[in-house]
Design a protein that fits this description.
4% strand, elongated, 68% helix, mainly alpha
């Protein structure tokens, strides 16, 4: 354990900075465990808690800022691109829109603790034309909360962290294999769920040309625009004749639809 602790104590600040920066740039690298370990080392006097938290905040802002300007430059498509590579892309866009629409810029202060929202929040703020100074203030507050809580937890649970590090060092490469297996298993389950969902959706999906043909017939199909209010503001284009519906409303009101009419639903 001494060699592992020495390595972390010697290069801890650089490891924290790199880990948080890569995480905020979009790589699937969890930073919380690193911050917890850094907190335990800070308790023993081998690292400076202030330095660790400060570097984490700086790295977070450096990682968030390019996404903010990407959202401002490219708008809504950048959100769809990010959500396509998310572990749970099917709920990514809808969830992030709902959170930002409800809480506004203040949601950036807790974004990093909301799965799926942490990466998408900065470009969403840019897309919504939030001014840069407010973005920096709320993002810095969120980064401070994101870094300080696990560092404090590591200091509080320093004995348990030291025990866990000792176990990992004794396991050697076996520990890496166990961690990799857990991550691969989780990703595999999500991939299977997504495959089954897409296979089902393909059975009930129609294409653009088929919809165009339906619109030329009588009776015309009923088209429901199930995008969120935020999505409709960001991209006001819609299929002619589509009726906007809010599927998240407590009471969903739909027009009276005769049983012989086709119903077509589209969303983000």
């Amino acid at each position: 354990m001494e060699e592992l602790t020495r390595l972390l104590a010697q290069h801890g600040p650089a490891i924290v900075f790199a880990n948080v920066l890569l995480t905020q740039l979009g790589l699937p690298l969890p930073a919380i465990p690193t911050l917890v370990i850094a907190g335990a080392l800070a308790y023993s006097g081998e690292l400076s808690a202030t330095l660790v938290v400060g570097l984490a905040v700086l790295a977070s802002l450096l990682g968030d800022t390019p996404w903010f300007f990407a959202g401002r430059r490219y708008g809504y498509p950048i959100l769809r691109t990010l959500c396509r590579v998310a572990i749970e892309p099917d709920s990514c866009v809808k969830q992030t829109e709902r959170i930002f629409e409800r809480w506004g810029p203040a949601s950036l202060a807790v974004a990093k603790y909301i799965p799926g929202f942490a990466t998408v929040a900065p470009p969403l703020a840019g897309t919504m034309r939030l001014d840069f100074p407010r973005f920096v203030v709320f993002s810095a507050l969120g980064a401070l909360l994101y870094a300080a809580v696990p560092v404090a937890a590591g200091a509080l649970l320093h004995a348990e962290v030291e025990w866990a590090l000792g176990r990992l060092e004794r396991m050697g490469t076996g520990a890496l294999l166990v961690i990799a297996a857990v991550i691969a298993g989780y990703a595999g389950i999500k991939a299977v769920e997504r495959y089954l969902l897409i296979r089902f959706l393909r059975m009930v999906r129609i294409g653009v040309e088929e919809l165009r043909e339906l619109l030329g017939r009588e009776p015309r199909p009923v088209i429901l625009d199930a995008r969120s209010a935020l999505a409709r503001r960001l991209d006001p284009r819609r299929i002619p004749g589509a009726l906007a519906v809010d599927i998240d409303a407590s009471s969903l009101e739909l027009p009276a639809i005769p049983p012989d009419r086709e119903v077509v639903v589209y969303c983000t």
